[in-house]
TrEMBL record:
Transmembrane stretches, start-end: 12-33, 67-88, 109-128, 140-163, 175-198, 225-244, 283-303, 323-342
GO biological process: phosphoenolpyruvate-dependent sugar phosphotransferase system
Name of the protein in its database record: PTS system, fructose subfamily, IIC subunit
UniProt keyword list: Cell membrane, Membrane, Phosphotransferase system, Sugar transport, Transmembrane, Transmembrane helix, Transport
Places the protein is found: Cell inner membrane
Gene Ontology CC, one term: plasma membrane
Span of domain PTS EIIC type-2: 8-342
Lineage of the species this protein comes from: Bacteria, Fusobacteriati, Fusobacteriota, Fusobacteriia, Fusobacteriales
Superkingdom as given in the UniProt entry: Bacteria
Originating organism: Sebaldella termitidis (strain ATCC 33386 / NCTC 11300)
Chief localization: membrane
InterPro entries on file: Bacterial_PTS_Sugar_Transport, PTS_EIIC, PTS_EIIC_2, PTS_IIC_fruc
């Protein structure tokens, strides 16, 4: 059993190694677009209306933001596809990619992508080991049966076993969060912050963020303030950790740290995903605590963010913005130092 979990971690790390260049490409392109558009007073460059802008550079930045978003949209299929590749080599890629895309469409987040990659890899492995055809037809298994049956079985399991329960959890969380609007603001902010920091764009995160944004239409801004703070705390914090303790991270994670900071500054929590996948039992709880801490502090200090904007270009429109920014960096440095303290040096991890 111990060997199984060691192999599982190796498969996850393989998925990360293939995903990191994709994340860097998407994050840098999107970051340039959002930073550039902010000089022209545009804080929602992703909005479709900017495609028809009379300003050539604004239109270009809108196109660039879409290209970056397209690259980042492939993140979950990449993770799932290359986890499956690590398990069973090339026959696992197609089932993994398709199941990862399904996980994305079902809003299951990166946890769903991990499940998709594992299911695809071991399903194809089972097919290749158990379906022994005569020698003259042996090649059919790898080029026909494995991709067809592997994709079908994996996607059916995702659709009816993994996806449906996660969707139910997502709906329940939205209802629960809405019902808590009248409770203590600081406690509510901490809960929302912890939820947003938990799965980095997954169903728990989206339940909190979507509900917080929906409550804005009723003039309730506390949940949105908490959510927008928590969106960016994990990627900034984990990026800072790689800058402060380079000996504890290998080259690929150091590169991921650079893009993670950039993604955090422009409001994209997925920059922290490579770190969460590499060491989920340590990183996820730290992310939850750091995000909850930052959100609670922002609300306690009286900061108020009435707009669904988490990136740095929206910080200065927040009421009591210096305290808002201070809360973000308190949470981020908590995450950075906690990860540094609990993480072994890169050489020890490689040896293990």
């Amino acid at each position: 059993m111990k060997n199984f979990f060691i192999d599982l971690k190796r498969h996850f790390l393989t998925g990360i190694s293939y995903m990191i260049p994709l994340v860097i490409a998407g994050a840098v392109i999107m970051g340039i677009a959002r930073i550039g558009s902010s000089f022209y007073g545009v804080v929602d460059i992703w909005d479709a209306s900017h495609a028809e802008s009379s300003h050539a550079l604004v239109k270009l930045f809108h196109t660039m933001d879409g290209i970056g978003g397209l690259a980042l949209g492939l993140m979950l299929p990449f993770i799932a596809g290359f986890i499956a590749f690590s398990i069973i080599d090339r026959p696992g890629i197609v089932p993994g990619f398709v199941a990862g895309l399904l996980a994305k469409n079902m809003n299951t987040g990166f946890l769903g992508a991990l499940a998709a990659g594992i299911l695809a890899g071991y399903t194809v492995k089972f097919i290749l080991e158990k379906m022994q055809l005569p020698d003259f037809a042996a090649g059919i298994t790898a080029i026909f049966l494995a991709p067809v049956l592997g994709t079908l079985v994996t996607c059916l399991l995702m659709q009816y076993v993994v996806g449906a329960p996660l969707a139910g959890i997502n709906r329940a969380l939205e209802l629960w969060l809405t019902s808590m609007t009248g409770t203590n603001k600081i406690v509510l902010a901490a809960i929302i912050g912890g939820m947003v920091g938990f799965d980095l764009g997954g169903p728990v995160n989206k339940a909190a963020v979507t509900t917080a944004m929906a409550l804005l239409t009723s003039g309730i801004t506390t949940p949105n303030t908490a959510a927008q703070v928590a969106i960016i705390v994990p990627p900034i914090g984990l990026g800072i950790a790689t800058l402060l303790s380079k000996k504890k991270y290998d080259e690929s994670m150091l590169e991921a740290g650079k893009s993670s900071i950039l993604m955090g500054l422009v409001g994209i929590s997925e920059g922290a995903i490579p770190f969460a996948i590499e060491s989920p039992l340590k990183v996820i709880p730290i992310n939850v605590i750091g995000s909850a801490l930052a959100s609670a502090l922002a609300v306690m200090f009286g900061a108020n963010n009435p707009a669904p904007i988490s990136g740095f270009y929206g910080w200065f429109t927040v009421e009591k913005w210096p305290l808002y920014v201070l809360s973000i960096f308190i949470g981020a440095f908590f995450i950075a130092f906690a990860n540094i303290l609990l993480r072994k040096p890169a050489q020890e991890l490689a040896a293990e």
